[in-house]
Amino acid sequence: MYNAKNELWWQAPDGEPHEALFEYVGRLVEDQNYQHDLNTDHFQRYNDAELTDLTLSGYSKPASAGRHKVTLNVVKSMCDTVTSEITQNKPTATFLTSGGDWAQRRKAELLDRFCQGQFYESKIYEVAPKVFKDAAVFGTGVMKIYESEGDVKVERIFPDELIVDDEECRYSSPRQAFQLKVVNKEVLKAMYPEKASALDSTTGVETSEALENRLLGESDEQVLCLEAWHLPSSKESDDGRHSIAVAGGTLLDETYHRDYFPFVTLHWSDRLLGFWGQGLAEMLTGIQIEINTLLKTISESMRLAKPKVFVETGSKITKASLNNELWGVIEYTSPGKPPQFYVPKIMAGEVYSHLDRLFERAYQIAGISEMSAQSKKPVGIESAVALREFSDIQTKRFYDIAARYENLFIHAAVQMIDIAREAAERDEAYEVVSHGDKYIEKIKWKDINLDKDAYVMKVTPTNMLPNTPAGKLEFVRELLESGLIQDPMIALSLLQYPDIEAATRPMTASSDIVDMFISEMLDKGSYQSPEPYMDLSLAVQKTQSAYMVARINKAPEDRLRLLVRFMQEVMELLASMEMASNQEQMMGVQPGGPLAGGEGTPPPAGMEGAPPPPPGIEQILGESMDAPPAGGPPVTGGAPMGPMQ
What we know:
Layout: H1 18-31, H2 33-47, H3 74-86, E1 92-97, H4 102-121, H5 124-138, E2 140-148, E3 151-157, E4 162-163, E5 176-184, H6 185-191, H7 196-200, H8 209-215, E6 222-230, E7 241-246, E8 249-255, E9 263-267, H9 280-283, H10 285-304, E10 308-310, E11 340-342, H11 349-366, H12 370-373, H13 384-396, H14 399-425, E12 431-435, E13 440-444, E14 455-460, H15 469-482, H16 488-496, H17 500-507, H18 509-524, H19 536-552, H20 557-586, H21 617-623
Antiparallel strand pairs: 1-14, 2-3, 2-9, 4-5, 5-6, 6-7, 7-8, 10-11, 12-13
């Protein structure tokens, strides 16, 4: 007979681990309640509210009556400042292939867009700053990544809900993890309708008092749910297990094959031993307590140090004449002494100096300048270059935690890719909408399906343009001085409304449309006919370079034929424009307009200023272009097709 107290929960019979789970986790909670107490202390210190516990009723109803409120909460100020400083960046995962051919590089590019789409669809950029703040306050931030109804979900996990065994975590690598969560009973019934009886059961496993008091509190509609993972001992073993249980029974029980938990943890600072990290709030605890003590002493002294009036006995001065009226008259009998007004000294100057030193020391420990916490810039720093340099110096102090924050997205991308790969193995059509700079597209995992050993990942921070009006105006001034913007009308429009992207988009449109056409032909095999209003010389030059790179990367021949066909049509357009221009000149007509070869018309192929055709293009046109490109008959453009028709 199975005995939950003597056996390991992952060795319990299939479908029945709930009894052993609650028994084991209950003992862990009782033995390791110190971490819960630390989390409660840090929660109170950050929110400046005294709590009875972190249950449903405890954290929402703080017992702050009669408690001295902190007027200088350096813990909250430091944690919020660092969070806003680091999390304004939005890192993305970039995939690099090692000596791969065109197909592998194309898949790596698709994998870039796939992960970017996953990040935006899962709203990871909204969840990650919350996880970062948890790391600053509690020492450890936890993000959970899982699949639900065919979509990847990203969720912030409150650190107090995660349970690990300290005996396994001496070197911070546990073999099993548990998540305690309070879930609405009706929600669980909708997820597991066949387990409704277990959810409604009034009998079941007797949970320990410490386990019940951890999160539940007094609630009839909420159920304490326990989710557990045990990693497989090796790649060949099948002892990995994933279970979800309530006191009334087991809701889910399945084999677990991954070698990691569905969590991504972020530590503010690693301890020498153990799983949990040390947070900024813990580092500032001593200073915050000392500041609180000084502020309380100063406040009480100010209440007691009231101005006094000394009146000699027998001076016959009435108390009514001692008032705050302007030019008031106080009569006294000579030779009596007039009243003496005395304002006591409230506190020694050393006390205020000590308070200032503690406040400055808190900023030094956190690595934050007081001006950053107050959203102020140093005096004398006005230009955008100086401001960016100052920001870089400020960020270097947080290099370690910033690198940890970027790695958070790398680990998240790994788990998202594994979820997509597992969905494809189940023959599910898994796809993601990628949000590009100019358009969106649906990317299917079956078009990628890149093996793990075929690529490496690195993180790429997003470059942040100035986001304040003053910063944008300075950036416009830099563009003018560097010559990148030469049109005075564009500069004036930017000074009125500093929209950098709107101003630079027309300047790069000629190049962007050629890049878009090349991408459509190379990536999707969709032919794009050139247009006479394009920069045809630039089109030949960029298409020639793209052809050479694609040929080196062993792109499919049908995609290369599309590029050659595009270059031929561009050169035919250039030739027809030159012919029309020559005819007009011979007839004595002034050339005009781009179609007539007027000012701004690129030189035709073979003439001075035009880029030469790719080496061997005539041979390619004569041999490989006889057959129509893949995907159907050739698409005709606005110019004669010549030998390609």
